[in-house]
């Protein structure tokens, strides 16, 4: 989880650098490339499909104590809204939306990624990931103590072990297998239609 987030931050910093240098290079193609990379990293404004949203939910949800897990996962929506508001304000002509400063506005998306790139290495890997995928029980206990402090955390470890035992009996489907599976056909149709038509519901105008 943590390595994916770090790589995603690097992708966003590269995208911000490309867009920030587009005016100096006099290349609108660099803006297109940078925005494409931003889309892979962060996703769309209204319908997030990039890497950071599922990674954020997975990592933050897994490192949070059970009683704070719902609150921690709701931070994603809060920061999306905050980011859009800051972007709207920063894009005003009196701030960064001027003819001379717009490259800085486009490159500003790299600042949060840089902050996370610097701070994230000080956080441990996700305890469920360490236990379920790596089989590292000691590493899991160490990560839990680092995140939640000293105390009795055996109940949380037992929950992860139960989840691991349950996962052994579940077949993980590839994307191609999922698309071929008849039982999930209508669910897939619904998801595709909802995702494709969300742009037509007027939420962008709002």
From TrEMBL:
- Name a single GO cellular component: plasma membrane
* Recorded superkingdom: Eukaryota
- Which cellular compartments is it found in? Membrane
List each copy of the Major facilitator superfamily (MFS) profile domain by range. 1-206
This entry's Gene Ontology molecular function terms read: D-glucose transmembrane transporter activity
Q: Does the keyword Secreted apply?
A: no
- What keywords does the record list, in alphabetical order? Membrane, Transmembrane, Transmembrane helix
Record-linked Gene3D superfamilies: MFS general substrate transporter like domains
Q: Which PANTHER family match?
A: MAJOR FACILITATOR SUPERFAMILY (MFS) PROFILE DOMAIN-CONTAINING PROTEIN, SOLUTE CARRIER FAMILY 2
Q: What is this protein called?
A: GTR5 protein
Origin species: Anhinga anhinga (Anhinga)
What is the name of the gene encoding this protein?
Answer: Slc2a5_1
